[in-house]
């Protein structure tokens, strides 16, 4: 573990986990991450940033492109944040880095969030953008879906919804610590509660309640772990051995393999949840490079 990650773990445990005890204050959480994002530097000069306004006539939410000069492939990215916070600005550095490492154009989607917009709003927005890319002539074999935490779950939900609707599927999926089970039944929710530097276990069921009703906690489009994964494209999953959502990745990988999905699983020690989105960390840059290599490999066909 790098010195930067050691410090990041201390800061997260003090400022995120400790401050996160008690009921979730949605407005406070949003303001806090947005203020942090305001300090981020702009994308590097070799990555073009292009905002895309919402298009209600087409059912499209706002989004933005982060693209290298001559992209060879497309990444459709869904940000994390428990379905209720974070957004385009918080994940812009990650998407810019992924664009460079994968020699790609990355479309980051500003899907509707809870509690104002409950399930299945986010899935509808994800699928609408996939349909739009296809309508624009984007070749599905040149696309990878990607996302972190809730966004990783949303990427999987979009795959399941696309399969159910008979739409073409992309070449692959890239998932960072995906939240695949909104019923929060994984054993590491309990066994890793103390070592996780970001989350208190009781916060995740509360966040899930903002997005879904109790009846939909195991709906595959909300909790893809409970879906039929047969026929889904190749995946790369990354998760930390010290996060309470580890079981969500372990069970997803096991089920995917049982159902014939080719999947690579990278587990890291002593790193925080969704560390690849923390581009100031050497480990994040290393794994974003690996992510770019995966994106390039699966889209070469």
Quick structural summary:
This protein has helices at 3-17, 26-38, 88-101, 121-135, 150-164, 188-191, 203-211, 246-258, 282-298, and strands at 48-52, 63-67, 73-78, 104-109, 143-148, 172-176, 234-240, 263-268. It has 301 residues and is an alpha/beta fold. The chain has a single domain (3-298), classed as Alpha/Beta hydrolase fold, catalytic domain (Rossmann fold).
The CATH superfamily is known as: Alpha/Beta hydrolase fold, catalytic domain
The count of helical stretches stands at 9
Q: Beta-sheet strand percentage?
A: 15-25%
Give the SSE order as H and E letters: HHEEEHEHEHEHHEHEH
Distance N terminus to C terminus?
36 Å
> What name is given to the CATH topology?
Rossmann fold
Could you characterize what this model shows?
- With 301 residues, the chain is an alpha/beta fold.
- It has one domain: Rossmann fold.
- It has helices at 3-17, 26-38, 88-101, 121-135, 150-164, 188-191, 203-211, 246-258, 282-298, and strands at residues 48-52, 63-67, 73-78, 104-109, 143-148, 172-176, 234-240, 263-268.
- The chain has an eight-stranded mixed sheet, sandwiched between helices.
- Helix 8 (246-258) links the parallel strand 7 and strand 8.
- It is globular, with a radius of gyration of 18 Å.
- The termini are far apart.
